[in-house]
Write a structure and sequence with these properties.
This protein is α+β, with helices and mostly antiparallel strands and 440 residues long. It has 17 helices and 11 strands. The strands form 3 sheets. It has a 4-stranded mixed sheet, with no helix packed on it. A hairpin with a 2-residue loop joins β9 and β10. α13 runs parallel beside α15. It is globular, with a radius of gyration of 24 Å.
Amino acid sequence: METKLIRIAELAKERPDMKFTSVVHLLNEENLKQCHHELPAGKATGIQKVTKEEYGENLDENIAKLVERMKKKSYKPVPVRRTYIAKAGSDKKRPLGIPEYEDKIVQRGIAKILNAMYEPIFLDSSFGFRPKRNCHDALKILNVYLEERYTNFIVDVDIKGFFDNVNHEWLMKFLKHRIADPALLGIIARFLKGGYMENGSFYKTDVGTPQGGIISPILANIYLHYVLDLWFEKAVRKSCKGQAYMVRYADDFVCCFQSETEANNFYRALTLRLKKFNLEIAEDKTKIIPFGKYAVRNSKRKGKPETFEFLGFTHFCSQSKHGKFRVKRKTSGKKMRAKLKECKEWLMANRTMNIHVVAKRLQRSLNGYFNYYCITDNSRSVRNFVDKVKILFFKWMNRRSQRKSFNFDKFNLFLRMFPFPIPKVKVNIFKLREEISYIL
């Protein structure tokens, strides 16, 4: 399958307007078995509660029947299981759709095909859920636009409930720009219309792509490629006299403008553009602010310039040791509070567990936190987070019984014997990887 996907990617790059007429045959027994082996075990199950291990017990027979159903066009995805996860910094919860395991296999196969077709034509401004691109790459490119280009104003945009409002008709039209295989389009349409189960009741899905599905990220990128990326590149930037740049990670994006007038014009045009495709701006989370070398001069309020949040970091104007303009970042307060709340709830639920097991679990969690948040200029914020985690650890280990387990001296002795990891800068925001340096 990999060889055929590479060939599809080559054709997609050489001929951007090419339509692929026959690709559904790639969802054959051999390739679907490969998708099965690639899927991680131990993940949440769908409404039928089938795990990877259970499905794999009769893998050959199960895959053969699955392929036969797809050939007869009788394959129909099982409605996803609706669940909810906490939303950072809010009392609201984010809906997730957990597909049935067999549907995950098919979705993975389709996602591979779509990635091969679309990755060569996606624009450089897009970073989310793409190979060899990540959040840190988006932050690095944005840093170049803010510090080394003529950026004076930022349009910080939030799309209201993007994944819940993707228009199915528009999405299928966008897919038909590239795909002329009715069998593959039919399977994708069935996933979109598959519905979900919640509290024993079935609900139809006329709009949206369920977060949690393997296929959702690539479908979201395709939708925004046509709705936003191409429009910004071909229409907005060409109409601007000053410089204009965009950095997008999934549905989260920031636009940089040299001119305030052009920033305001873009905001008004964006509202109409999104409305055309069944989307709208979350006005309470969207703003135009002066930002850059001349932010203080351009600001309408006295004091420090406003800040904006992007990918879990608060970006603010500052200076280097030599007095030159610098953009710096610190962990978003909303994200930090959400992570501390999660840590508190876990400690509260597991306070009777062996203390060494608890400590090791916290150490692993902190290492994961460091891998993302330990970037240039953010060391102080990360150390502050570690201190708060230590306080929570001390508090809940002392609530294991009516008698306190620790005083501060004993607690510090324990930490010297079983120390928490020390935060160190893991990502240099000024060092671009070769894979993305060509953008500039």
